[in-house]
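Journal club side-thread
Mid-discussion, someone asked how the predicted structure for our own chain would compare to the paper's figures. Pasting it here so we can look after the session.
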Amino acid sequence: MLNYTLRRLFFAVPTLLVISFLIFLLLDLAPNDPTGNLPMTIPPEVREKIRISLGLDQAIHIRYIKWLEQFFVSEPLHVLEQWFNISIGDSESRVRVQSWATRSPAFDLIAERMPQTLWVVGMSYVVGILIALPIGVISAYRQYSWFDQVGSFISMVGFSVPTFFTGVLMIVVFSVKLEWLPSIYDTTLEVVDLDSFWLQFKQMIMPVMVLGLFNAAQLSRFMRASMLDNLNQDYVRTARAKGIREKSVVLLHVLRNSLSPVVTVLALGIPTVFGGAIITEQIFRVNGLGQLLIIGIQGADIPLVQTLTFIFAILIVLFNLIADVLYGVLDPRIRYE
């Protein structure tokens, strides 16, 4: 398995390089201008000087190579220096990925927003898994029962209704009508005691449930289908014929083998949840990565958008590798030679 993992990591490098070039090329060719939001009274020669100061007078391949150096060399060295309180090379002359809008390092902006997004996205995914797996297992084991029919209906509705609709609906019901929960996420809140923890818990309920229920609707259908495929296999009938308890057959044999295809959905779904969080963060005013990406797109802040988009691409490649490795752990029939 170690050799397989190393081979996959080796092939991941050129894959990410191609993805990074495509992201850089598409955003560079997009019809946007970093000086577009400036007042119209600014003379054209001043606008041109601003573009030159941002390096837009250079060829695209030169700007791409500089961006790669900043992303893969300057930023990791800066992180190592911050974590271990050491100095590596000439840190003063090291150029980092700079946001055009704020003129501050893009990674610092991302690190500042990351905790808010992880709280919402991470908790929503955990909630979605805790809801989806039991529903999928019970629905498959009791196929066509009332539980299966209700679960299938709720899953189809949850997967069909977009998150911006359920988010606004929850705000209308629980914030406007009942006045139970806050409609705006307070990112400045610090948890220092029980009261502040309760406020943090209350403001997380709606955004977490919006994303969690959307994820649960999809995961439960995959879990149900995978369980149904394995419940009629020969090894299940053999285990029952040996006198193994039904609970052990379902939970130890069927569930383990059924998790293999579901792991792909779980692993690849983690990066895509950030896409759903973009909409949810806008609705609940969560000051996270989704809102940062929207601000970057609106302000034509290309380095910030490139960095965020490429980080999402890295997450997809990484979790795809994790899913492939977990196949061998869950299914003993799979061997990596």
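Post-session note: The chain has a mean pLDDT of 81.
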